[in-house]
Specification:
Keywords: Oxidoreductase, Signal
Radius of gyration: 16 Å
Oligomer: single chain
Helix content: 25-40%
Strand order of the largest sheet: 3-4-5
Distance between the termini: 32 Å
Structural class: alpha/beta
GO molecular function: oxidoreductase activity
Shape: globular
Order of helices and strands: EEEHEHEEEH
Pfam family, one: Aldo_ket_red
Number of domains: 2
Number of strands: 7
InterPro entries: Aldo-Keto_reductase, NAD(P)_OxRdtase_dom_sf, NADP_OxRdtase_dom
Number of helices: 3
Protein name: General stress protein 69
Largest sheet: 3 strands, parallel
């Protein structure tokens, strides 16, 4: 697998695996198959995995956590954040908009 050095100096595989469809959007996901796919990708040299808190919401990040826990030191997980996720009238989480403004990002950085 070819590797790429990002501007920050972080080195990741040239190919990454986008994981949205493993828990969100396309329907019919099977957790065991998704975990097997993620782990096979690592075996093949993939070190970059893409997710977002809104996929599910949160279920995709949980899935990646399960799949990659024993391999965490070998991979990089890129996640997107800043979505406003709130329960609707039925108590189901839903996205009400995106808040990726400068102040929200600044607050997030201060927590780290």
């Amino acid at each position: 697998m070819k590797m790429r050095r990002l501007g920050s100096g972080l080195t990741v595989s040239a190919l990454g695996l986008g994981c949205m469809g493993m828990s969100h959007a396309y329907g019919g996901q099977e957790e065991a198959k998704s975990i097997a796919t993620i782990r096979r990708a690592v075996e093949l040299g993939v070190t970059l995995f893409d997710t977002a808190e809104v996929y599910g919401p949160f279920t995709n990040e949980i899935l990646l956590g399960k799949a990659l826990a024993p391999l965490r030191d070998k991979v990089t997980i890129a996640t997107k954040f800043g979505f406003r996720i709130a329960a609707n009238a039925e108590g189901v989480a839903s996205m009400s908009g995106v808040d990726a403004g400068r102040n929200r990002r600044r607050r997030w950085r201060k927590r780290r």
